[in-house]
Write a structure and sequence with these properties.
Structural class: alpha+beta
Radius of gyration: 28 Å
Strand order of the largest sheet: 5-4-3-6-7
Number of helices: 17
Oligomer: single chain
């Protein structure tokens, strides 16, 4: 059971869990501490039981109908009366509504509410995820009806009282698979005047012109708060007529926009800016690949195709390098991490997983958007208008100490003060860049920082090293950006934007909101000790809602990706792969495969007969008798031993273990065992693959250590496992 006060989780024994379900909010009493000092408790009262759907497969056992929940955290099957099965057939995936809650002496009872289909149907993993995490995926009838009344194109009356930028060659730069275009950019050099540099225009789709506060579309958009991205499918925040049509900055059509018009000097400092409403005409739709090719070769085929825009792109590249120089000066944290992309076939199954390559084009757009976001935050602060800021706090004192001890244990000579700065983090990242364990160090730096949230209390953005930051550049897919647009418009018009009476957040993400609340209150205590006004509380509630929905969208996306990866790895059971230890916990070692970019667990029971203790300072497991260490960054070779599709888990076993350091020289291997050859093109069955691989597996290092440790020694008493 997770406590709301952030203290250690409370263990509830099986008999206490019979009367509760996953996500129930309960009042519990700690009754004792186990031998490891962990709290154990009992349930005093059930405070809240959210009306949540349960997704699972309909089964029939000995004449009894039941649904086995897809989410194993529910812990028990749901009984279904025969009259409540509807049109569902055995084995199908269904959505169940509870009719009788669980009790100490009886299972929960429910009825089939919706039939999703067969487990192997294309896209079933997404259908499960959107219901499992209660992601709104159907627009209301009122929302769709209102969207249908909107025009198909920008009319003369829409462009009235706006700056006409249709002759400015603004262009969009996005990924190949992008369908909605939030932003367009243009840059020209400024050679005259006291401050030479560039004029940078960032034009953002003017969603607020079409989505009025409190309208049917606005209510649905607020409920979603963000678009949710899955492989091969997007659940948009706005109806398609807006997200892919009227608001999208498509090429060769007029569109309404909000513009951040900036003056940037040679040092990358924005010394002047202004916001205004405009009408624009996108002169080209570029992909990141196109722009990267043009920047690398201005006389190549892509440059010839877009010869009229090459000089504009070079100006954008020049201002980007200037902004990047400013980024380095202020000490913004910049880690090199590997992002992956899942490539699926027509049936939604993984074909391959490939790394996303970040080019100069990606970074160019990123820096332009950062500059516009910073200007929007500054504009709102100067006007003293309430709004949602994007706040990113530095490490907590606890995480700071863990990081400090970790760096000290690895011998990293770095300064980490009591109140760390982004520059200190960036200095550590740069100093360790050439070390073989740099990925390990960068991972720990990332984990020490808190997650970013939306809040009206500005306390800066630690990672980007900005004193104030907000989101302005993606109103098609993020509700906070839409709110920022409304605030900026109200400031331009000399009025004050008032938040309407917002709907109460759904129970599905109430737990997330409560968890984020503590972080938000910490930021508030740092900067605003005065009691918040009702208007301030309304903005705080909106920030918590948007932050919680952002987390929910991330969790749903990760769940689908984990399901697809498990299904993908089922085809590789018994096969051997090389990989890197990516995380170490008290219960085992996580390994990421080189070729697949898939992570799996080598459970601690696979490490041999030694008793391993988790060293939090060094982030490693160490054997008590042998001194063998398993740490992040170690190169290993593993075999896929088990795939649990329902639990989204992949298990590995060692084929060749890491060349771990030891404290006892008597157990150090002189001749490392060879790794098993990787199987290619095998047509054998999964069962045969697994058995053969197991039989052919060489003796592992831990097995050898176990045999050596079994030899009797003088005055030696074996340690018992606690």
């Amino acid at each position: 059971m997770q406590r709301e006060d952030g203290q250690a989780d409370v263990y509830l024994p099986p008999n206490e869990m019979r009367a509760v379900l996953h996500r129930d909010r309960v009042l519990a009493k700690v009754t004792r501490l186990d031998r490891k000092g962990r709290p154990e408790g009992r349930i005093v009262e059930i405070l809240e039981r959210p009306a949540q759907p349960i997704i699972g497969r309909l089964l029939q056992e000995s004449g009894v109908w039941l649904v086995a929940p897809e989410d194993r955290r529910f812990g028990q099957d749901i009984l279904i009366p025969k009259s409540a099965t509807g049109n569902a057939a055995v084995g199908q995936v269904v959505v169940v509504e509870l009719t009788e809650p669980p009790s100490l002496f009886g299972q929960p009872v429910g009825r089939v509410q919706e039939v999703l289909g067969e487990m192997d149907d294309p896209g079933m993993e997404i259908e499960i995820a959107v219901r499992k995490y209660s992601v709104p995926h159907r627009f209301s009838d009122a929302c769709l009806a209102q969207a249908a009344t909107l025009p198909d194109k920008v009319g003369p009356q829409d462009a009235r009282n706006r700056i006409d930028l249709r002759d400015i060659p603004l262009v969009t730069i996005d990924g190949e698979d992008a369908r909605d275009f939030d932003d367009a950019v243009y840059c020209e050099p400024v050679t005259k005047g006291p401050t030479p540099g560039w004029r940078l225009l960032v034009a953002i789709a003017d969603v607020s012109h079409y989505v009025d506060t409190g309208s049917a579309i606005d209510i649905d958009a607020y409920e979603r708060a963000t678009s949710v991205y899955f492989p091969r499918r997007v659940i948009p925040m706005l109806p398609e007529k807006l997200s892919n049509g009227l608001c999208s900055l498509n090429p060769s059509v007029d569109r309404l926009c909000m513009v951040c018009d900036m003056m940037v000097d040679a040092d990358g400092q924005v010394y002047a800016y202004q916001f205004y409403e405009a009408v624009m005409h996108s002169h080209a739709r570029f992909t990141y690949t196109d722009v990267a090719a043009i920047l690398s070769n201005t006389r190549g085929p892509q440059a010839s195709k877009y010869k009229d825009r090459v000089s504009d792109l070079m100006n954008l590249h020049d201002v980007y390098r200037s902004l990047l120089q400013s980024r380095m000066k202020r000490g913004a944290v910049d880690f090199e991490t590997t992002e992956t992309q899942i490539v699926c076939d027509d049936n939604g199954r993984i074909e391959k997983i490939v790394p996303r390559v970040r080019t100069e084009a990606h970074r160019l757009i990123e820096e332009a958007m950062l500059a516009a976001n910073v200007c929007s935050a500054d504009f709102i602060l100067q006007s003293k208008h309430p709004a949602l800021f994007r706040v990113h706090e530095g490490p907590t004192p606890e995480k700071r100490e863990i990081l400090r001890n970790y760096l000290r244990a690895l011998g990293v000579s770095a300064t980490l003060s009591e109140d760390p700065t982004p520059g200190q983090f960036q200095a550590i990242a740069q100093a360790s860049k050439e070390r073989p364990d740099s990925q390990q160090i960068h991972t720990m730096l990332l984990r020490s920082m808190q997650q970013a949230i939306y809040t009206p209390i500005n306390s800066g953005h630690f990672g980007l090293a900005y004193p104030a930051y907000t989101h302005f550049t993606s109103p098609i897919r993020r509700y906070p950006d839409l709110l920022v647009h409304r605030v900026i418009k109200s400031i331009l018009n000399g009025t004050k934007y008032q938040l309407p009476a917002l709907p109460t957040p759904g129970e599905a993400h109430a737990k997330l909101a409560r968890r984020l609340s503590a972080q938000s209150k910490l930021a508030q205590r740092k900067t605003a000790p005065v009691k918040a006004s009702p208007a301030q509380q309304a903005w705080e509630a909106a920030g918590l809602h948007c932050s919680a929905n952002e987390r929910r969208a991330d969790e749903a996306s990760r769940d689908v990706e984990a399901w697809l990866k498990c299904q993908y790895m089922r085809e590789h059971l018994g096969e051997d792969f090389s990989g890197t230890v990516s995380a170490v916990t008290s219960f085992g070692v996580f390994v990421t495969l080189d070729a697949m970019y898939v992570e799996g667990l080598v459970h601690i029971t696979e490490l041999g007969g030694d008793y391993f203790r988790f060293d939090e300072a060094r982030q490693e497991l160490r054997g008590e008798r042998t001194g063998i260490r398993y740490a992040i960054g170690a190169r290993v070779r593993v075999q896929v031993s088990r795939v649990d599709l329902d639990g989204r888990k992949i298990d590995f076993r060692w084929v060749q273990e890491p060349g771990a350091e030891t404290l006892d020289k008597g157990f150090k291997r002189k001749n490392p065992l060879p790794s098993a050859p990787e199987k290619k093109g095998s047509k054998r069955s999964t069962q045969k693959k697994t058995a053969t691989a197991k039989d052919a597996k060489p003796q592992s290092l831990t097995e050898a250590v176990k045999k050596a440790a079994a030899k009797p020694k003088k005055n030696h008493k074996p340690k018992r496992r606690p």
